[in-house]
UniProtKB/TrEMBL annotation:
<comment type="pathway">
    <text>Cofactor biosynthesis; coenzyme A biosynthesis; CoA from (R)-pantothenate: step 2/5.</text>
</comment>
<feature type="binding site">
    <location>
        <position position="104"/>
    </location>
    <ligand>
        <name>CTP</name>
    </ligand>
</feature>
<comment type="pathway">
    <text>Cofactor biosynthesis; coenzyme A biosynthesis; CoA from (R)-pantothenate: step 3/5.</text>
</comment>
<feature type="domain" description="DNA/pantothenate metabolism flavoprotein C-terminal">
    <location>
        <begin position="10"/>
        <end position="226"/>
    </location>
</feature>
<comment type="function">
    <text>Catalyzes two steps in the biosynthesis of coenzyme A. In the first step cysteine is conjugated to 4'-phosphopantothenate to form 4-phosphopantothenoylcysteine, in the latter compound is decarboxylated to form 4'-phosphopantotheine.</text>
</comment>
<feature type="binding site">
    <location>
        <position position="169"/>
    </location>
    <ligand>
        <name>CTP</name>
    </ligand>
</feature>
<keyword id="KW-0288">FMN</keyword>
<feature type="binding site">
    <location>
        <position position="173"/>
    </location>
    <ligand>
        <name>CTP</name>
    </ligand>
</feature>
<dbReference type="GO" id="GO:0046872">
    <property type="term" value="F:metal ion binding"/>
</dbReference>
<comment type="function">
    <text>Catalyzes two sequential steps in the biosynthesis of coenzyme A. In the first step cysteine is conjugated to 4'-phosphopantothenate to form 4-phosphopantothenoylcysteine. In the second step the latter compound is decarboxylated to form 4'-phosphopantotheine.</text>
</comment>
<keyword id="KW-0456">Lyase</keyword>
<keyword id="KW-0436">Ligase</keyword>
<comment type="similarity">
    <text>In the C-terminal section; belongs to the PPC synthetase family.</text>
</comment>
<keyword id="KW-0285">Flavoprotein</keyword>
<protein>
    <recommendedName>
        <fullName>Coenzyme A biosynthesis bifunctional protein CoaBC</fullName>
        <ecNumber>4.1.1.36</ecNumber>
        <ecNumber>6.3.2.5</ecNumber>
    </recommendedName>
</protein>
<feature type="region of interest" description="Phosphopantothenate--cysteine ligase">
    <location>
        <begin position="15"/>
        <end position="230"/>
    </location>
</feature>
<feature type="binding site">
    <location>
        <position position="151"/>
    </location>
    <ligand>
        <name>CTP</name>
    </ligand>
</feature>
Amino acid sequence: ARPDALPRDLEGVRVVVSAGGTREPLDPVRYLGNRSSGKQGYALARVAAQRGAEVTLVTAHTVALPDPAGATVSHVSTAEELRQAVHAASESADVVVMAAAVADFRPANRADHKIKKSDDQPDPVITLDRNADILAELVRNRRPGQVVVGFAAETGDEHGDVLDHARVKLKRKGADLLVVNAVGDGKAFGTEDNSGWLLGSDGTEIPIPLGAKAELASTLWDAVVSFMKR
Ligand code: CTP
Ligand code: CA
């Protein structure tokens, strides 16, 4: 939709969106990362601003994306940096959307110097420590009336299909809304389009047809607006 055709139904609403993929350093030149492009989070921030919201975008690494117009943008790198920035911005937020791909683990040790290979030393083994679950912390610290939204990229497996996994994750995470993207086979990561489901803690399940990431953003903000009216 053209920006001037969008409703101004987020006027005065303070929104925090996290986006992109975090990087966990191994040494000064190497990191553990992920394939998040950041496009979905940026689309969420852009559309929210177009609908009148006061938007803070906390972004980790993305493909080269311009800062969305009308948003305050904070650039971070690691999961811990994203965590600090999201919590600080969320204190006064009405809605927090965790679209970032946050590393579940970080290398237990970060070498001060570039790790070298050597013929008389054994090859290194990377030990990982668990990162904090930011979404779970947001749910635990939620202010009355604050809406917390999670994202999940799921594939089906022998334990169930995408929707089965998503229902379990929504329960486990305690978020108000969970956007579920089906991934694998070139779906979602880095592409222009997304599809999936929008699950609500009230049991609503809205299918999201394959479409531009801005379309998914509009569907999510529609759901957030009706969630805030309850
Ligand atoms: N998330 C988070 N902090 C983390 C990991 C994930 O806030 N350390 C958020 C993501 O931003 C996303 C949601 O949690 O909104 C779901 O992420 P996902 O990786 O699907 O869930 P996990 O609980 O990490 O489960 P899994 O073992 O399937 O990766
Ligand atoms: Ca994870």
